[in-house]
Amino acid sequence: MARIVVDVMPKAEILDPQGQAIVGALGRLGFPGVSDVRQGKRFELEVEGDLSDEQLQQIAADVLANTVIEDFTVTRVNA
Amino acid sequence: MARIVVDVMPKAEILDPQGQAIVGALGRLGFPGVSDVRQGKRFELEVEGDLSDEQLQQIAADVLANTVIEDFTVTRVNA
Q: What Gene Ontology terms describe where this protein resides (cellular component) (chains A, B) (predicted)?
């Protein structure tokens, strides 16, 4: 049993209105020092047996991320 | 300028229908070995000046996470 973490974030050139809304909210709440926020997704997968790095990349690119607008990173976590 | 990462995940006892939908989709796509998926959120904050750990915990707990149903972790990333 292995744990895999896939982080999916909007590409740098893609506007992130959710993140900008958080920046605005933090400013009003007294945290003006936060100059930028990007919001993405985090997936934690429990895998039985073993999947190759290529299979994990395929899962992330085809199912978890929209690679037109998002970048992803795949990390194996020692359980 | 510091980068802070806040990971927000549904608590273990909270059902995660998005994650279960992904498990089903992966099974149909030929990855039956993925037995569980949890979907959460990842926030990347750019901070000017310095915020204390207490302030970061407050931002995560009050703004980024819903602590009734979600757990969060705050990580300082060396830029």
A: cytoplasm
